[in-house]
Amino acid sequence: MNKGLIKIHGVCIAKNLPFVTFHLPQQELSTTYIQTTPGNVQWKSILDISGETGFIMAPFDTRNGHRYILVKPDLVIDTGDISRETVNMVESLDLRPQAQWNGAFPVVTGKETYMEQVESIKSSIAKGAFQKAVLSRIRVVEGDHMDIVPRLFQTICRKHPNAFVYLFKSDEHFWMGASPEPLLRLIDGQISTVSLAGTRPYAEKHLDINKWTAKEVLEQEYVTRYIHDVLREFSVKDYRISSPYVKKAGNLLHLCTDFTLGHEKITHRLWEFVDAMHPTPAVAGQPKEDAISFIKQLEPHDRDYYTGFMGPVNRERGTDLFVNLRCMKITPRYISLYVGGGITLESDPEEEWNETQWKAESLLKILGLYIKNLDI
What we know:
Layout: H1 3-14, E1 19-23, E2 31-34, E3 41-43, E4 54-58, E5 68-71, E6 75-78, H2 84-91, H3 111-126, E7 132-142, H4 149-159, E8 164-169, E9 174-179, E10 182-187, E11 190-201, H5 214-233, E12 239-241, E13 245-249, E14 252-262, H6 270-277, E15 285-286, H7 288-298, E16 309-313, E17 318-323, E18 327-330, E19 334-343, H8 349-367
Antiparallel strand pairs: 1-2, 1-8, 2-6, 3-5, 4-5, 4-16, 7-15, 7-19, 8-9, 9-18, 10-11, 10-17, 11-14, 12-14, 13-14, 16-17, 18-19
């Protein structure tokens, strides 16, 4: 454990300082941004971020009143070698007023209800309303677990080395997660994204892509087609695409296809491109707007920043945006874990429930290292 980082996280939480620590896939070190200037930086539109530097947190849907939030990098700390002087500097920062927490417990969807929701989606698909919808639910861990957050972050980093792991706190929002899915990465003039969908628990037999079902293949194909369509919309013709392959993400496997392209066609319209991409059918459905309209009526909870996206923007090395999956919302009264899965006409309700269980377990097992008698 990095004791210096644990200390910095503890101070930031206690002083209600906006901060983020993020760990890029397959990187050795994490980076921390602490905002020392007052006030939240928020926008209704992602297009307003152009030119800003920091860490962006984007909601699934702004129509619920959620905003794009930026944590400014007023203080940047590379976590490889945190000195006593750095810790002292953070400890000397002014305390910010603590927002009064009065949020109600979120609605938890049980197995029977979730399976009924799957059948409802299948019925609508059969009637031609849409082809795919992504259904989500919440798992709640009750209690105040703020004290474990600093250690929890480092454990998640260790358990998920191939994920984008982050810990984000603004004045009113506190989230942590380990995303396997890049939305857009702009590094050294090259843009990349992925089509990622379909889920199985890790097992050697599931590494053979030919053993995946037609339903899983089609679910991912919807996302691949969507990305092709967005690239055509931006007149991008010269790009590379990999063959579908099986990608490991913690204790799970997904179908994945990589897209890479030069930045020339996109850079001057980067945030328009991000706006067109988000949310993809991997987290919403196909056609997107029809699926979103249906699931917003069906799901009893607010997705908030789950299935939104987040990441550092306009850094010297580029921009790294990831879809907010395998994530949890942290409050003084509970932790909410958000999970979901893509539903098509071929979906089996029992199997869809099991998929959400696997996804929840990827974080519950880590929480169980710090919370006694946790029901996993």
